[in-house]
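Task 17 of the worksheet. Students: predict the tertiary structure of the chain below and write it out as structure tokens. Keep your answer in the requested format; marks are given for formatting as well as content.
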Amino acid sequence: MSALVGGLGIFAAMVAVLARQNNHADDDWVFFLNLNSLIALLSTVYRAVMVAVAAEVVSQSKWIYFWTSRSPISLLRLQYFDSASRGIWGAARLLPYAAKRSPATLAAALIIAVSFAVGPFFQQSIGTVDRSFVLEDGTASVPIARNINGSDTWYRTLAGPDYGMWAFKYDVRASILSALSNPFSQDSAVSSKCTSGNCTFPSWESGFPSQSEHDITLATVGMCNQCIDVGSLVTVYNNSLNTGSPSWKLPTGLNVTAFDGANWMSVAESRNLTWAESIIPYEQAATFRWAFANITMLVLSNSNSSQTAQDYRYQEQTPNAVVCSLYPCLRSYSASVTNGKLDEKLISTQPMYPDLMSYTGSDVEKNISAFPEAGTLPGDEPHLAALQSPCLVNETVYTSSNFSAYSNASDVRILSPSAVADNYPSIKAPPQCLFKFNTFFYLMLASYLQAGVFSGNCKWDSRQGTNVYCADKYWLAQFWEYRHANLETITGRFDNFAEAVTRQFRLGLGLDQAQDNVVRGKSSRTKPFTVVNWKWLIFPIALLAIETVLLIWMIARSLIYRGEEMVWKGNVLPLLYHRDKFVDANGLHLGDGIPSHDQADGLHGGQKLMTIAEMENDAKDVRVTLIRNGNGTSEIGNVKDDKQSLRRRRDWDQDSLLGS
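Model answer:
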């Protein structure tokens, strides 16, 4: 019983250790042995205790097995029981016999047989997961653009090439052309400031740390793109070259001809899109009205990808006509930093429209009819704007339903087609939720894109292979796609350009530096944490419970058969002292046992069963030798004086199972 109590104590100690370390960082462990080593050590001792108790049960069961047998049993079974108490193989060999006669023996043998799994089960219960924790002194921020005012981007001349008497500085032009020709350049990559390399940002929808890649965590002023296929408006016409080659044109006059040296791709800005109003949806038409540029592309392409330049037949060309609109917008992202890399996913976009702010007049349409002439717009320092909803300000979430609750709300009157009431009503909103684009800078950028970037003709002849010549507008050649341009490829190019320009805004192009142009989050570090899967401890504790039941059963039986059955367990002396108690099928005794010094009669049947204590006390003075091969002789002598022999038999107390 003491061994069982010890096993329970060891199990409790392991549970206490695991409970203490559960959901704690691995580096919180301060013991000189690591957790796995300590549990391995304790589980080994625990298994030894379990096996020892089970072995005692099996050992006692062998005597009960023979005592309770109604007929003589093979003496070999005695060896089976003894082997079962000493190892896994012996326990496994005993199972068939125990299953027929003794459920208790079967259970104990099974415990010995499966005890090897105790250690792995304890080890399996210990798991490790990586968890992050916030660094209180860490830094986490991502740049955004709240207000693009064109700061430090232009200068005044007598005759500016971009807009009136103003022109863009050289670096602005370079940034825009770089965004078009190399949109994925690392020079325009947005980087975060993240102390630990792992940062999260609060969701603008809940105010809590973002838990999903669909949560909006930042918004920024940017550029967006929409493209529409207007190929249905292309018509065939007879050109003036009299080449016999086919020519195609759009209602605007933009045309291409499939002939050497002719225009195979034409690009032009179309501020007025009334010629395509039959196929442009109303929602997009409203966006196109305030675009930087509405670019029309008419390009000849060949769908036969295996065709070589020499096989490039004029009659096999297909005209593709696309209108793409580049417009100012508000772009919302879900952002996080993992292992030092900023990951951003675009969640939504919304166009920016003129904001009249506190202007209360009702003649809005008249005043904006002449736009983009900035001077005709009412209000102070007009700008285009968009409201971000939801929006996070000082850990409080604001939406269109509670914008006015902000204490220092600004007047906002955005001329959006989606206005909920006529005449574009004015509302109040937190200034942090209002993203703006300065009208003057908008007009300069629009003029530059329309005249300086997206206008020109590209020629091709059979000597150029898959290349197209666009003169000084070389950057337009990428839209040619080596003769395989279509709506998808053209849209992709403009999307990449819009995203690249957005990054330039965030990095400082025309940015109002007086604004708080960052979004802040939490810097976190990842640590391995210990987690305990408690279900793996069911097996070890089940063994302990079964052994407890078996031991209680053994104790109860020894009390019931007190005086008839002795608690001999694994002791071998009963085989010598009570050999005469073994009777074969013919009723013959196997032979005399070792007589005790106190034995008064020679009748085998009259000798009472001795306890372990009696046998061990008597055996210490019995001297014997073992005869080899039956040829030697041995004399068994009792060297004790008769007066030192055992006292005459009397009722002895049972050996207690509580002993070791």
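Marker's comment: The chain has three domains: 1-125+533-565, 140-350+457-525, 571-660. Residues 72 and 158 are 126 Å apart (CA to CA).
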